[in-house]
Write a structure and sequence with these properties.
Rossmann fold; 16 strands; oxidoreductase; binds NADP nicotinamide-adenine-dinucleotide phosphate; alpha/beta; about 300 residues; 9 helices; six-stranded parallel sheet; ADH-like_N; NAD(P)-bd_dom_sf
Length: about 300
Amino acid sequence: MQAVRIHRFGGPEVMQLDQIEQPIPATDEVVIKVFAASVNPVDAKMREGKYPVVTEKDFPYVLGRDVSGEIADAGQSVSSFLMGDEVFAFLTPDHGGYEEFVIAKSDEIATKPHSLDHVQAAAVPLAGITAWQGLFDHGKLEAGQRVLIHGGAGGVGHLAIQFAKASGAWVATTASAADRDFLSGLGADQIIDYKSERFETIVEPVDLVFDLVSGETQDRSFSIIKSGGALISTLSEPNKQRAEAQGIRTGRYTAQPSGAQLQKIAKLIDSGRVKVRVDRTFGLREAAAAQKALQEDHIRGKIVLKVLN
Ligand SMILES: NC(=O)c1ccc[n+]([C@@H]2O[C@H](COP(=O)([O-])OP(=O)(O)OC[C@H]3O[C@@H](n4cnc5c(N)ncnc54)[C@H](OP(=O)(O)O)[C@@H]3O)[C@@H](O)[C@H]2O)c1
């Protein structure tokens, strides 16, 4: 089978399409025949050697963290999925998604949303679980509260806006001006152009800032969080002293695979309350170009690799 692997850290040129053996599942694992795999910012960080979980000991390493496909093989103790079941998954860093068949643990996978094709479904797992855990597990967002989501037009942000709205929250978001119509279509209540406006002078105080941008955007966010509120980031730990002085809760987290949460997300998607935006697709052999596009171009939603047709 084909897999996109790295044999050393570096730029997109270190990714190569290798011919490798199809994996065999352990007793508690399944093999997913991959129809589509999405591209996430973490894939490029791993390729560049900037994500400490992947070291030179892991070479040759298959990139990619989420997939949509069907069960092609299962270990003896797996009873929750049958051969041919359509599934999607956010994988642990032990197994990569840019390949034709991938190993997954049965508790990482969920039944694919019936209303999505494999390309759309592959766009969901990592971004969706990151949004879910940031808003609800760490951010403790509740119905009737106000949330500001930085980076609303990206992979995580466009799902986070819709999850927050579906939970009954009021949602403001920062993005480029060109994304205004896209974001209002997702239900955002207030949209701020981060290039020409200063959100902290426009948005009324919020209960939660969900930060997908970091840097000075995170620093400027403190002033609009209510006492007792929270600032949760996917990227960097917010200033603890400032948080204590202001009486707010802060945190930086790493999203963890969860088949159970993914199944809740699938249900929400099939209810019609959450739309998935795929901006562009590439072939498996074009994975380097896909990562380059995510890093350098303006992408609305997600980029997905079509792996098997
Ligand atoms: N900790 C974790 O477990 C975890 C999980 C997932 C993602 N992440 C991280 O979270 C971040 C977001 O992930 P993603 O997949 O959504 O990335 P993405 O798809 O690349 O989206 C990033 C978005 O941020 C926008 N943006 C850039 N600068 C901005 C600013 N100053 N203000 C407002 N928006 C801005 C971009 O818009 P323009 O194109 O218009 O600039 C883009 O829409 C990434 O850095 C990723 O590495 C961490």
